[in-house]
Amino acid sequence: MSDVTLQNFEAEVINSPVPVLVDFWAPWCGPCRTLGPMLEKLEAEAGGTWKLVKVNVDENQQLAGHFGVRSIPHVVAFAGGEAVNQFVGVLPESQLREFIDTLAPGDGEAAQPDAQALAAAGDREGAKAAWQAALAQDPENDPNRLAYISFLLDDDAIDAAEAEFGRLTPRAPQEDGYAALRTRLDAMKGLDDLPEGADLKAQVEANPANVAARLDLAKVLIARREYEPALAQLMEIVRRDRGFEDDIGRKTMLSVFDLMADSPEVVSKWRRQLSTALN
User: Fold this and answer.
1) CATH number at residue 57
2) Do you know which PANTHER family this protein is assigned to (predicted)?
3) What is the rounded CA–CA span in Å between residue 86 and residue 64?
4) Distance between CA atoms of residues 22 and 75, nearest Å
5) Rounded to whole angstroms, how far apart are CA atoms 96 and 102?
6) Closest residue by Cα to residue 72 from 62, 83, 85, 87
7) Owning domain of residue 57
8) How many domains does the chain have?
9) 254 noted as active-site residue
């Protein structure tokens, strides 16, 4: 719960990545003192899926007037920067819960596009909060959690991404993109234990048959998101030693294809080359 004024209303309410309940109140209002703790309790239970802010009408008459507040307590619900619902007076807790449940879908569907839009706009903190809110609301939504893991890896938040992998359900390995993200995370985790990319490249040039060096170089390239050069190294592993580490060259190529879903023409080219190499 936080106090809001005209100066920070836009930042705290209009631009919030999660729904907001705005409680218009005053210190002298008896019913306000009844409703306030009830709302604070529900906010604490919500785990970040929505937030509560309070507006003292005595100190913020302009805000109160703008939203037509004539009697308090008066609660206005915001979602996506717009007022979507409201009530006046004190409601029983059961009705409060019903009111709050209407603010967002239970499966977290709305939060993923919101988070992606915030990330695309450069608001990484806002996007992170939106992902966390979506997952608090629906912790078994593996597609949302995998999307959040991808977001964390983009920020080089390796430990946080690893922790999120641990929160996936047993069904997660069947989801699109799971293997690709696991490959990317493992490559990033192992980066500190590998020689520099230039050293590995020199090893490969000195001994083209060194498939172990090629694999390490591919891992470095994947960690750097240089996917096509990584595919070139993996393809050479397939051509030179198909059985190396249980066909790891081919398997890793398939994971990299998933990571390159936004480059279908490039993926098609390498799929054709892989098919030719396997036949």
Assistant:
1) 3.40.30.10
2) GEO12009P1
3) 13
4) 5
5) 10
6) 87
7) 8-103
8) 3
9) no
Unique residue bearing structure tokens 């050069």: 229
Token pair recorded at residue 127: 């996007």
Q: Is 136 a catalytic residue?
A: no
Find the catalytic residue in 26, 29, 232, 266.
29
27-36, 102-111, 135-144, 270-279: the lowest-pLDDT one: 102-111
Q: What is the pLDDT of residue 106?
A: 47
The predicted-structure confidence for 193-245, as pLDDT tens digits, reads as follows 788 888 899 999 999 999 999 999 999 999 888 999 999 999 999 999 999 99
Tell which residue, 150, 153, 156, 148, has the closest CA to residue 131: 148
Q: Do 167 and 131 touch, CB atoms closer than 8 A?
A: no
* pLDDT digit string, tens, across residues 22-38: 999 999 999 999 999 99
**Tokens describing residue 34:** 């009844």
Catalytic residue among 18, 20, 32, 168: 32
Rounded to whole angstroms, how far apart are CA atoms 21 and 151?
28
CA 25 – CA 72 distance, rounded (Å): 6
109 domain residue, yes or no = no
